[in-house]
Amino acid sequence: MRWSLPFAVVMSLYAFLPSPSAHAAEKTYVPIEQRLSAEQMRATGLDTLSQEQLSLLNRLLSEDRAEVARAVEAEVVAKHTQDSAGKRAERVERQPVSGTVAGELRKWSTGQTVQLDNGQRWRIVQGDVYFSRPVSNPKVTIAPGFLGAWWMRMEDDTPAVKVQRVD
């Protein structure tokens, strides 16, 4: 037997779905008839469904809820495992980045964007350093610091500048 509910009714049912993890979603699904009052069941037309139709609706909502929870969980895991050098709000082990800055430089200045030979772009957010002589294609290391900060330093004794990943 084929049946259908108005789209608005089905979408309104999602408001009653909590959003735990995928495993919890499969185990903690509460049937729709236990979440709605008798008045709500009548107002949505769900009181007219047979027991078989109500069971099917509950199964479909439970499966959909678990699928959404799995997708969200996968997205969160993917976000937290990508390369996070300099990106905010990532919970991945932070590793130093080394590279070369192309061109000739006379200074580092706040607001300046620097591109490394590996394609990463970094913006200087704190620190102005003037070089005593122009520097060509300097090799730099960008290392994690305290409280999520990143510091860029050349291979000589030039002071480090605070940077933030642009891309």
Instruction: Provide the β-strand percentage band.
Output: 25-35%
Mean residue pLDDT:
79
Low-confidence stretches: 19-23
The helix-strand sequence is: HHHHHEEEEEEEE
In order across it, which strands form the biggest sheet?
Answer: 1-6-7-8-4-3
* Radius of gyration from CA coordinates: 28 Å
Shape assignment: rod-shaped
**Helix/sheet category:** alpha+beta
| Helix count, DSSP H or I runs of 4 or more residues | 5
Give the N-to-C terminal Cα separation: 53 Å
Would you kindly provide a written description of the structure presented here, covering whatever features stand out?
This protein has 2 domains: 7-81; 97-165. It contains 5 helices and 8 strands; from the N terminus they run αααααββββββββ. It has helices at 7-13, 22-27, 32-35, 38-44, 51-81, and strands at residues 97-100, 104-108, 113-115, 121-126, 129-136, 139-144, 150-154, 161-165. A 6-stranded antiparallel beta sheet has the order 1-6-7-8-4-3, with no helix packed on it. Strand 6 (139-144) and strand 7 form a beta hairpin. The longest helix has 31 residues, at 51-81. The protein is rod-shaped. Residues 19-23 have low confidence and may be disordered.
